[in-house]
Design a protein that fits this description.
- The protein has helices at 10-19, 28-37, 50-58, 93-102, 114-118, 149-164, and strands at 42-43, 81-85, 108-112, 140-142.
- By secondary structure, the chain is an alpha/beta fold.
- A four-stranded parallel beta sheet has the order 1-2-3-4.
- Helix 3 links the parallel strand 1 and strand 2.
- Helix 2 runs antiparallel to helix 6 and helix 3 (50-58) packs across helix 6 (149-164).
- The structure holds iron/sulfur cluster (SF4).
- Iron/sulfur cluster (SF4) binds at residues 48-50, 86-87, 113-115, 120-121, 145-146.
């Protein structure tokens, strides 16, 4: 009986045929960033009127769950996104700062509305911080008084793009 010997590259070709387009190679960092960008866990913080729009974003009409961002946390150690919705009063500033510091890294801050961005109509008042960036680095600013839920989504998706690209 005569056995034909297989071509030398037969093993590699068979493997290539078997895997085809079913395998994606990437880096661990890219995979982490992709997963993070689709699963922000926002911390519940709100003051005044902007939080009402943030709450509406979580309701059935606007449905923040479409993007995977609906897991609002009441504990900073379980959150990676601080949405500052509304103004920060001088009295609350040390508390908000401490809450931010208790969040694990990597973490992001989104300033929602004119008050969080710059103090808004209370900027020249005696009791309001002139913007969340007086306390910590803000990654995304969403202007408006108040911004609609769609504007919040726009800010979240812009943050998603940055996190996905590792720009943080
Ligand atoms: S930006 Fe306007 S809507 Fe938002 S908290 Fe300030 S005053 Fe209220």
């Amino acid at each position: 009986m005569v056995l034909a010997s297989p071509p030398a590259d037969d093993g590699a070709s068979a493997l290539q045929r078997m895997l085809g387009d079913n395998v994606i190679t990437t880096t661990l960092e890219k995979m982490w960033n992709w997963a993070r960008s689709w699963s922000f866990w926002p911390l519940s913080y709100g003051c005044n009127c902007c939080p009402i729009e943030m709450m509406a974003a979580g309701g059935a009409r606007f449905d923040i769950a479409r993007f995977g961002y609906e897991v609002f946390r009441a504990v900073p150690r379980q959150a990676d996104l601080l949405v500052v919705a509304g103004p920060i009063t001088l009295k609350m500033a040390p508390v908000v700062k401490r809450v931010y510091e208790q969040m694990p890294s990597p973490k992001w801050v989104l300033a929602m509305g004119n008050c969080a961005t710059s103090g808004g109509p209370f900027r020249d008042g005696y009791s309001i911080l002139p913007g969340a960036d007086s306390l910590f680095k803000v990654d995304i600013y969403v202007p408006g008084c108040p911004p609609r839920p769609e504007a919040l989504f726009h800010g979240l998706l812009e943050l998603k793009r940055r996190v996905e690209r590792g720009e943080y």
